[in-house]
Amino acid sequence: MVATIKKIHRHSENTAELVIADPAIARSARAGHFVMIRFSEDQPRIPFSIVDASPEDGTFTIIIHKGARLTHLINSLEVGRELPNLLGPLGQAFEVANYGTVLCIGDGEGFVPLLSVMHALRDAGCRVITVLSEFSEQNTCLQPDALKWSDDLYHSSSKERAAELIREISSREKVDMVVMTGPSDLMRLLTETARSLSIPARCILNMIMLDGVGICGICRVMVGGERKLTCIDGPTFDAYQVDFTQLLNRQRNFV
């Protein structure tokens, strides 16, 4: 069966939510997984987080934000379009359990990888507190889903404010884990803050990938002094163990 686009919800000229029919991926997808998609033969594979899956319908959902490689993509998409290349689910699933109170922090459009994790954590019985950093018009579509899976939702205007919110919230109630995603400089600051408060932290890395199966090696990252591949070993890692300085230096070479 060839994967096809079943539904398109265009939130704005910059953002579209796609429901894709692929029963095998829908059955296997778990929180934290992603897919690699080539929308046409002349385009590269692009990684997208799986934000939802319906095994009953045989579909899964992704969110596309217009970016450097996606400028013309959103307007060209049509329902019924077949995807010439789809690979997934990829990566390691997030380890879901009832951790207690989990603080989830993400940056604007980079918040997308957290949606499936928040959903799974709530289903597992966690109290989920969300901080949506760098909130803007481009990612207002994320707020309804963020609200759906959050017990409390905060907005922050900067990475420094996001770090302050960790301190403020943890001073009012016990926070058992911080889960973060977004730019690496944001995650480095949030990790330092969580460490200073002795709160376990996990990060979901957003890395450039060409194949998603470990061949290109672009998504290499040092974790606990060992070389890891985000596409195979991640994208979720113990944030304390990630060498964010090395990661930022690598990312500058590929941006």
Please describe what this structure looks like.
The protein has 255 residues and is of the alpha/beta class. 27% of the residues lie in helices and 31% in strands. It has eight helices and 15 strands. The protein has helices at 23-28, 73-76, 114-123, 142-148, 159-172, 184-196, 230-233, 244-253; strands spanning 4-10, 15-21, 34-38, 46-49, 52-54, 59-65, 85-90, 101-107, 127-133, 152-156, 177-181, 201-204, 220-223, 226-229, 236-238. The strands form four sheets. Strands 10-9-8-11-12-15 form a six-stranded mixed sheet, sandwiched between helices. Helix 6 (184-196) links the parallel strand 11 and strand 12. Helix 6 runs antiparallel to helix 8. It is globular. 44% of the residues are buried. The mean pLDDT is 89.
- Calculate Rg over CA atoms: 18 Å
Shape: globular
Regions with pLDDT < 50 over 5+ consecutive residues?
Answer: none
Distinct helical segment count: 8
Mean pLDDT over all positions: 89
Beta-strand proportion: 25-35%
Major sheet: 6 strands, mixed
| Class inferred from helices and paired strands | alpha/beta
Distance between the termini: 36 Å
Would you count the extended β strands for me? Answer: 15
User: Which sequence of SSEs, written as H and E, runs from N to C?
Assistant: EEHEEEEHEEHEHEHEHEEEHEH
The share of residues in helices is: 25-40%
Q: Which strand order does the major sheet show?
A: 10-9-8-11-12-15
Summarize the structure.
The chain is 27% helix and 31% strand.
